[in-house]
Amino acid sequence: MRMVDIIHTKRSGEALSDEQIQYFVDGVVSGDIPDYQTSALLMAIFFQGMTKEEQSTLTMKMMASGDHLDLSGIPGVKVDKHSTGGVGDKTSIPLAAVVAALGIPVPMISGRGLGHTGGTLDKLEAIPGYQVEISEQDFINQVKKDKLAIIGATGNIAPADKKIYALRDVTDTVDSIPLIAGSIMSKKIASGTDALVIDVKTGAGAFMKTLADSRALAKALVDIGKDVGMQCMALITDMNQPLGNAIGNALEIEESIALLKGKGPADLEKLIVTIGGYMAVMGGKAKTTEQGQAQCLEVIHNGKALASFKAMVQDQGGDPKVVDDPKGVLPQATYRIDLPAKQSGVVSKIVADEVGIASMLLGGGRQKADDKLDYSVGIVLRKKIGDSVQAGDALLTIYSNRKNVEDIQKLLYDNIEISDAAQAPTLIYETIE
Predict the structure, then answer these.
(1) In angstroms, rounded to a whole number, what is the distance separating the alpha carbons of residues 319 and 329?
(2) Phi, psi of 395, rounded to the nearest 5 degrees
(3) CATH entry, 79-156+171-322, from 3.40.630.30, 2.30.30.140, 3.40.1030.10, 3.40.720.10
(4) Gyration radius from the chain CA atoms
(5) pLDDT one digit per residue (tens) for the chain, 433 residues
């Protein structure tokens, strides 16, 4: 078998055989296939696509290219959640605590942020002492004890994906649905969970900008999950404006804690309760999603979810006092600068990805993978789409460690619009089960 023939097959629009996909994955991991040939096949897949069968085969071969976590020693149905990423998307952190408080084990392996999207691990590392890298056995023991752990990838999970993703990033093939689906699901299947809810973001601040592309990706992800016997469903949710109010690592932890005290933003609570309802059914704690959602609201407002979060923080080396005194424990920015509205009216547009870029430029995100983060900086929205505003009112507050933020202010003014009328966007568009 020759790599050039595999490239030719896909370039011609034909389906690759299981043997061809295996040869490709093996060659990527071993280094026998040069980057230029891997890149050529990725480009062919980008333009020609893949069948449902090809997608499943590619996912399983990438999953089998490395370690597979064995979570069978953890009693119960292990349920996880994945988001395709967005601005202000801290959902995983409070959601995991809510679901764990229902008695469902949540072994969550998360990632870091790059560019305008934030990473769950970066947010948690804003808590002094929190360790995202623990051994596989410690991970399993903690989930047994607390029903919850959120860590970075352990061992050698899906090494083929690591190499392929690096080339996708530099060959402009990142937004290929078969390649995105294979990347996400190979890691999730290798992580050993029994059930998975996927939050596919759509809109300006999302990876998928259109509802049609988001629907296609969600369907591909669910199909792969079902093909391997995993309980799997997806929601398509809005990312045309930031989720919640806080954008920035420490600020998002503070907002997560507020939510677990029953004082979080309405949109964030609605999303968490909705996703949590599905996870409750998958985990066998509720017969209907409505019953599961009611249970999620109950543990948010009776303090059980907050206790789950505090236990996780403490057992992963973080300062548990962050729950009682977030501002006293989390890093704080030197300057807080309001952005006043230039006119009265109704906020009609907040371009999510540009707000995320503004936070990144303050130091809250990475332009390169090895950039050092400033956990204290970011942006807190005071108004969202559909809110009325008077000239001079604060649209948002910039949290910065530099006094001069004229560049940030200009970027934000350019991406927030005020009109005579506007309606808040739909938060949850549809579910794919």
Answers:
(1) 8
(2) -80, -35
(3) 3.40.1030.10
(4) 22
(5) 999 999 999 999 999 999 999 999 999 999 999 999 999 999 999 999 999 999 999 999 999 999 889 999 999 999 999 998 889 999 999 999 999 999 999 999 887 766 566 689 999 999 999 999 999 999 999 999 999 999 987 778 889 988 898 898 788 888 899 999 999 999 899 999 999 999 999 998 887 889 999 999 999 999 999 988 899 999 999 999 999 999 999 999 999 999 999 999 999 999 999 999 999 999 999 999 999 999 999 999 999 999 999 999 999 999 999 999 999 999 999 999 999 999 999 999 999 999 999 999 999 987 776 778 999 999 999 999 999 999 999 999 999 999 999 999 999 999 999 999 999 999 999 999 8
| CATH 1.10.10.10, applies to 3-63 | no
Which positions are annotated as active-site residues?
82, 161, 168, 183, 187
**Which residues of the chain form CATH 3.90.1170.30?**
331-419
Give every CB contact of residue 255 below 8 A, 6+ residues apart in sequence.
90, 244, 245, 246, 264, 265, 268
